[in-house]
């Protein structure tokens, strides 16, 4: 499958043949859902915490005798029945991450790329180089290309001027090819790839 290659100024500079094995897979919502869930679970901090009875400061003395008071028996003022007492079965610090095999993660990324191409939301650029490094100039180029919410994926390293010019545009994300991931691809409307990015993704996902 062929796509037109453009410059950042919108000029056509030829065509590129996208590999079927990376961009031609059937779109499976279940695979994409599992990948997004895996990514977001790994991102969760998991630092929520409540104190158990062994962590509450206070006396260990029995508050009153066992029998004859007319009250329910109590063994400690650190019990959850008391104000300032423990929380039973409360959250503890933990990791929310779960495993997905490397083979499945590769499949997920290929499915996300295929989904964008099937929707006609892939643009290929010659390179990501900003001459001036100014946000105003880059925003004008992006609008001329007809892009609003877009993810730009470059080669191994992103041009420093392009990165600086784009970081103040809230609807634009920029990643090197090794940072390409399912969540970021799906959260933006258009996927913009450089020729170098396509070459590296093909090598990485074969």
From TrEMBL:
<dbReference type="GO" id="GO:0003735">
    <property type="term" value="F:structural constituent of ribosome"/>
</dbReference>
<keyword id="KW-0687">Ribonucleoprotein</keyword>
<keyword id="KW-0699">rRNA-binding</keyword>
<dbReference type="Pfam" id="PF00573">
    <property type="entry name" value="Ribosomal_L4"/>
</dbReference>
<dbReference type="GO" id="GO:0005840">
    <property type="term" value="C:ribosome"/>
</dbReference>
<dbReference type="GO" id="GO:0019843">
    <property type="term" value="F:rRNA binding"/>
</dbReference>
<protein>
    <recommendedName>
        <fullName>Large ribosomal subunit protein uL4</fullName>
    </recommendedName>
</protein>
<dbReference type="GO" id="GO:1990904">
    <property type="term" value="C:ribonucleoprotein complex"/>
</dbReference>
<comment type="subunit">
    <text>Part of the 50S ribosomal subunit.</text>
</comment>
<dbReference type="GO" id="GO:0006412">
    <property type="term" value="P:translation"/>
</dbReference>
<feature type="compositionally biased region" description="Basic residues">
    <location>
        <begin position="64"/>
        <end position="76"/>
    </location>
</feature>
<dbReference type="InterPro" id="IPR002136">
    <property type="entry name" value="Ribosomal_uL4"/>
</dbReference>
<feature type="region of interest" description="Disordered">
    <location>
        <begin position="57"/>
        <end position="84"/>
    </location>
</feature>
<keyword id="KW-0694">RNA-binding</keyword>
<comment type="function">
    <text>Forms part of the polypeptide exit tunnel.</text>
</comment>
<dbReference type="InterPro" id="IPR013005">
    <property type="entry name" value="Ribosomal_uL4-like"/>
</dbReference>
<dbReference type="InterPro" id="IPR023574">
    <property type="entry name" value="Ribosomal_uL4_dom_sf"/>
</dbReference>
<comment type="similarity">
    <text>Belongs to the universal ribosomal protein uL4 family.</text>
</comment>
<keyword id="KW-0689">Ribosomal protein</keyword>
<comment type="function">
    <text>One of the primary rRNA binding proteins, this protein initially binds near the 5'-end of the 23S rRNA. It is important during the early stages of 50S assembly. It makes multiple contacts with different domains of the 23S rRNA in the assembled 50S subunit and ribosome.</text>
</comment>
């Amino acid at each position: 499958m062929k796509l037109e290659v453009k410059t950042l100024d919108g000029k056509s500079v030829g065509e590129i043949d996208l590999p079927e094995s990376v961009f031609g897979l059937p779109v499976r919502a279940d695979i994409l859902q599992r990948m997004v869930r895996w990514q977001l679970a790994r991102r969760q901090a998991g630092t929520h915490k409540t104190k158990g009875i062994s962590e509450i400061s206070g006396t260990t003395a029995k508050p009153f005798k066992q029998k004859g008071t007319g009250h329910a028996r109590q063994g400690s003022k650190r019990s959850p029945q008391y104000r300032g007492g423990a929380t039973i079965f409360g959250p503890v610090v933990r990791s929310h991450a779960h495993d997905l095999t490397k083979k499945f993660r590769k499949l997920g990324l290929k499915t996300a790329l295929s989904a964008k191409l099937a929707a006609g939301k892939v643009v290929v650029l010659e390179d990501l180089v900003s001459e001036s490094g100014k946000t105003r100039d880059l925003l004008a180029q992006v609008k001329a290309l007809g892009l609003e919410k877009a993810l730009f994926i470059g080669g191994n390293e992103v041009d420093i001027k392009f990165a600086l010019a784009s970081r103040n545009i809230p609807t634009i994300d920029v990643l090197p090819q090794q940072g390409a991931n399912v969540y970021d691809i799906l959260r933006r409307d258009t996927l913009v790839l450089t020729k170098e990015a396509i070459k590296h993704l093909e090598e990485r996902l074969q």
